[in-house]
Amino acid sequence: MEIPLFCRKAALILAHGHQPRDRDVTLREYLFGRRLVLRTPHRKDRAIERIKRAVPSRFGFMNRGISGGMFFGRLRLAWDIPLFSNGFRPVFRGRFVEQGRATELHTVYGAPPVLQAFLIVWYLFLTLFCVTALIIGVTNDDGVGVLVMIGAALALAFFPIGLHLVFNAKADKHYEAVLDMLAREADLHPVTAP
Questions:
Q1: pTM value?
Q2: Cα 16 to Cα 43: distance, rounded to the nearest angstrom
């Protein structure tokens, strides 16, 4: 039995503490992830098998739509476009937890962990660069050079934000598509945020 859209949206309000929006994933949600718990009446093995049957492998270069699978005991789904690899695309990650006869899927939808680690290193480098520029500027009395260096660092700081805005314009629609697929194929429905 399919749960009506208004019921799923009501569950999202309970899960996120706000009304679902018809807009893209915010930068904060992208970097730190949207958290959601989904529940199915099926056992863990059956839910995993149903998802595996419905989702093509992540490694197909002609995939269009949702792809992914189980990696190291965790679910990982993403939206793919044929012949294009978007390393900035949000990833739907989850861990299955058995709750008696039912199963819960604790999920996070956001930036891939490798990209999160890269951005931490990126911003640490830019911070170190700005501190070094300030020290050089104070010791050499070169105010113009410091301003140019800090301006360049700020431009580099906004570069990942621009990439997010350009490459993840449909992230919210992809999130809804993943939730719809999980509801349809594995009877997984939102419960609450963990």
A1: 0.70
A2: 26
